[in-house]
Amino acid sequence: MSSSDPNSSILLTDTPADVKRKINKYAFSGGGATVEEHKKNGANLDIDVPYQYLRFFLEDDDKLNEIK
User: Fold this and answer.
1) d(CA 55, CA 61)
2) What whole-number distance in Å separates Cα of residue 26 and Cα of residue 65?
3) 15 vs 11, 24, 32, 39, 54, CA distance in Å?
4) What's the CATH number for 16-67?
């Protein structure tokens, strides 16, 4: 992690909009090699970074299962 790159990590001082932007732009989705493959097979939730964040931070287990 580089301190000179503000996009290299999610900080506690980041706004919700910053966190969303960083995850959407930089986080590995665990998807396929192509968009078509991802749509066909779905994501690999064991390595899907946004889903892993939700597992840790989302308190509603029913909502997490719905997202899964």
Assistant:
1) 9
2) 24
3) 9, 14, 30, 30, 17
4) 1.10.240.10
CA 61 – CA 56 distance, rounded (Å)? 11
Domain borders along the chain are 16-67
Q: How far apart are CA 23 and CA 53, in angstroms?
A: 9
Residues in the chain: 68
Residues 12 and 34 sit within 8 Å (Cβ to Cβ): no
**Whole-prediction pTM value?**
0.56
Q: φ, ψ for residue 36 (rounded to 5)?
A: -60, -45
Q: pLDDT tens, 13-67? A: 999 999 888 887 877 777 777 778 878 888 888 888 888 889 988 999 999 999 8
